[in-house]
Write a structure and sequence with these properties.
- This protein is α/β, with parallel strands linked by helices.
- The chain has a single domain (6-146, 195-244), classed as 3-Layer(aba) Sandwich (Rossmann fold).
- The protein is built from eight helices and eleven strands.
- A seven-stranded mixed β-sheet has the order 3-2-1-4-5-11-10, with helices on both faces.
- Strand 2, helix 4 and strand 3 (91-95) form a beta-alpha-beta unit.
- The radius of gyration is 18 Å and the shape is globular.
- The mean pLDDT is 96.
- The structure holds S-adenosylmethionine (SAM).
- The site of S-adenosylmethionine (SAM) has 20 residues, from helix 3.
């Protein structure tokens, strides 16, 4: 199986960078604060971040007291930024696919992954290799695109009235698991759709105890400041799960 490495495509990389520079991005307003709210105390802990991208979260884990942080990513370009901007003495970055986690022999207290897991095709294999990476009782915390987003067979997200106001979300294909090719900066970006129950059941089968499941909305202040996020009342963008091995 050849892994998709879309973040090394220059057009994609440039588009994604612009998105992340926006302080009002959904990552900054919704996903990141929720992910960090799920972290246990990090003092003295070892952490591995799967699909670490620019490594911003790795740097913060270190600042929050982690003993050692390893960030892995498939993209050379993302890791170049990580090495340049977010490297600290106890933070190490490595080019590795999430499909090759069995190459890592060390165990970690915490595995984190932010918005990367929906790029991996074989979820059962991934989840079981994540379980293997953890020390007994270790924490696994991840975010992914919400299954209601990955489901779509046509990228026709919203039905709107004549003034452009959202009426409802156009859900299609929810129960059809598997590959979707979406247009995001470039054509044919592959993501993998899994239903909510299939995600939870794969985790239980791998031996995880599910501790928390979140489908976050922006807080009231941000909802007021950025009315575009009112669409989250119809459909959240992210799913976050905290589990214990
Ligand atoms: C949306 S970005 C998120 C980056 C970072 N976690 C964050 O939240 O800022 C997704 C990242 O997953 C990485 N990725 C995608 N498929 C991967 C794979 N098979 N193995 C490792 N990393 C992968 C991409 O290169 C990209 O850096």
């Amino acid at each position: 199986m050849t892994d998709q490495n879309i973040y090394d495509n220059q057009t994609f990389f440039d588009g994604y960078q612009k998105l992340r520079e926006n302080p009002a991005s959904a990552n900054n307003i919704v996903e990141k604060p929720t992910l960090f709210s799920l972290l246990p105390a990090l003092q003295g802990k070892t952490i591995i971040d799967l699909g670490c991208g620019y490594g911003e979260n790795c740097k913060e884990f270190s600042k929050l007291g982690a003993l050692k942080v390893v960030g892995i990513d498939i993209s050379e370009k993302m890791l170049e930024v990580a090495e340049r901007e977010n490297k600290l003495d106890n933070v190490q970055f490595m080019q590795l696919s999430m499909n090759d986690l069995s190459d890592i022999t060390e165990k970690y207290d915490i595995v984190v992954s932010s918005l990367a897991i929906h790029y991996v095709e074989n979820f059962d294999r991934l989840i079981s290799s994540i379980h293997n990476l953890l020390t007994k009782g270790g924490s696994f915390i991840f975010s992914q695109e919400h299954p209601l987003t990955t489901a779509l067979l046509k990228e026709d997200y919203w039905s709107r009235d004549d003034e452009g106001n959202i009426l409802h979300y156009n859900l299609t294909g929810y129960s059809l698991l598997g590959e979707r090719k979406i247009k995001w900066f470039i054509d044919d970006v592959k993501v993998y759709h899994r239903t909510f129950s299939s995600i939870i059941n794969s985790m239980i089968a791998a031996g995880f105890i599910i501790e928390k499941v979140l489908e976050p909305l922006p807080d009231e202040k941000n909802m007021e400041k950025y009315p575009k996020y009112r669409k989250y009342y119809h459909k959240p963008d992210f799913l976050l799960i905290k589990a214990r091995s």
